Amino acid sequence: MTLYELMYAVIPNLNTAERLVCNTLDSLINASENPLDIVKRTEQRQAFNLEVHRVRMNIEHLLSRYRTDVDEVLRTQGGVKGPRIQPDALEADAIQSAIDIYQHVRAFQRGERRHPVPRRSIYLALILPV
Predict the structure, then answer these.
(1) Cβ–Cβ < 8 Å for 6, 95
(2) What is the pLDDT of residue 118?
(3) Other Cβ atoms within 10 Å of 116 Cβ, number
(4) Are 54 and 46 in contact, with CB atoms under 8 Å apart?
(5) Which contacts (CB < 8 Å, 24+ apart) does range 39-45 have?
(6) Which sign does the torsion angle of CA 82, 84, 87, 91 carry?
(7) What DSSP state is assigned to residue 38?
(8) Strand partners, 2
(9) pLDDT score recorded for residue 111
(10) pLDDT tens track, the chain, 130 positions
């Protein structure tokens, strides 16, 4: 994966998925009259936010290691694709988690999944109703 792909595909897609999941959970919380449902959805949102925070911290660490290249990609507005990145184990896991979150949320939106469950996490298993 190039630095450009991380900056202009993975990160924006994660932002989109995060917005969709959080908006859905907020709607479910606001529409719920059952206090147990409110607690459940609030806990799900906290778990999701924690996972996204973990992903972002590791991606930020990777970007800081490539700071000069990041600056060049930004300065040229994507005209320079930057180097192929070589993430450490935690950074690679974060990138894969970001991709998984987005792919599963999109599959849910297209009706291909009952809920957006990433392969390694169960925190999204109950986020969206059946």
Answers:
(1) yes
(2) 53
(3) 23
(4) no
(5) 40/126, 41/127, 44/123, 44/124, 44/126, 44/127
(6) positive
(7) H
(8) 84
(9) 80
(10) 999 999 999 999 999 999 999 998 999 999 999 999 999 999 999 999 999 999 999 999 999 999 999 999 999 999 999 999 999 999 999 999 999 999 989 988 888 766 644 545 444 444 444 3
Distance of CA 23 to the CA centre of its chain: 14
List the one residue out of 21, 31, 15 whose CA is nearest residue 121.
21
Q: Which of 42, 49, 50 is nearest to 25 (CA)?
A: 42
Q: Judge whether 118 and 52 are in contact, CB under 8 Å.
A: no
Q: Tokens 């529409």 map to which residue?
A: 31
CB 28 within 8 A of CB 129: yes
Distance CA 76, CA 57 (A): 25
pTM higher than 0.90: no
